[in-house]
Amino acid sequence: MLPKIIDYLKDKSVLVLGYGREGQSTVKYIRDFLPEKKLVIADRNSVALCDENTQVISGENYLDCINDFDLVMKSPGISFKSVEVGENTEISCQVDLFLRFAPCRKIGITGSKGKTTTSTLIYEMLKAAGFDARLIGNIGVPVFETLETLSPDTVAVIEMSSHQLEFTRTSPEIAVLTNVYEEHLDHYRGGFDGYLNAKLNIMRFQRESDCFIYNASQGVEQYISLDSVASKKIGVRADDFLPFEIKNEHLLGEHNRQDVLFAYNAAATFGADGDACKKGVENFSGIEHRMEKVGTFKGITFYNDCIATIPHAVECAVEALKSVDTLIIGGKDRGIDYGEFTQFLDKCSVRNIIGTPETGHSIADRLTEKGCKKNIVKAENLEQAVIKAYELTAIDKICLLSPAASSYNVYKNFEEKGRHYKQLIEKYK
Fold first, then answer.
1. Domain residue extents for the chain
2. Confidence band for 219, pLDDT divided at 50, 70 and 90
3. For residue 165, what are the contacts with CB-CB under 8 A and spacing of at least 6?
């Protein structure tokens, strides 16, 4: 008998839109069961033919073909901001079909910030409690890659980006929304409203017996009526009671405490006890590019927080680390309002602010115009910023890369930028 996902799409004309890791994973999964099914792959870049039953559409106009298919399996990074979808075409993705058809229990986690830390903590807590858990999704593991290993007792912990949720019409039995801030405004029709609507799909289709865990400090009620969602709702604040202390250098700061609380409530809802949740916290080994301690060189401790692509995340890192003397900011301008962030930089204890293009330069100009007395440097690139950080940062203090912007103006993604930063630290130590 065919798996439910394959049975759903076997008689449909299918377009795999985008041929990165998720697109390749989708094609492989379909081919494992339907080796002779006609498939079409569309990607802006040229793609080598997989087999004789595969057609490739590439080039600038690759999106023009979507309405020729019954089902479009869209990769997360492709924007539909200017795309009109016909009424006979279904837009889906791996996360959508996984939530609909995968034979396991499911916890979904989304949010502008904190979703990777929260997802990883839930996974560690469930493992410590003896559950057969999987950590998948936006964390870097396409959900289809685990399908053949699942059982009804498996708990899938799924990190979900707004891009994966945009066309998802099923919600997990436990949905966690860590927060919502201005992010990806260039990706969605309607800007912030489009981004928010995508995020809210994580709980919009829950059943009455499901559970919604949300950030009670942010007032999610302003976005959606809580009366319309799952009967079990848990609002989480950073100062809520925890039955154990957080003793882990990778979980500094109030924002990380709140992530632990999100994870604890999710794991406890599935039956994990306090001891298992405490062990899960102890087993958390940190995540690359998230307040990652790179090392101490020439008396300066360097941190890589490249995942911080919005101002709030930078503020959290500065407050958690406490002794930040130099802050490196800047990246692609996506239309985020930096007014409040500029005020924060002017008033906080950071002594040196190094801005890189594009937003780092505009923020530096704002600070200079308002008469800020800090050392404000406009570096032309990350290499210049690291060189200047070695010159300016006081001994026994911290240099923090926390951009408050995306990396796409120079780098492929934040991971590439973070790794380059670490290479530059080594180069000039």
1. 4-92, 95-283, 292-428
2. confident
3. 95, 110, 198, 199, 201, 202
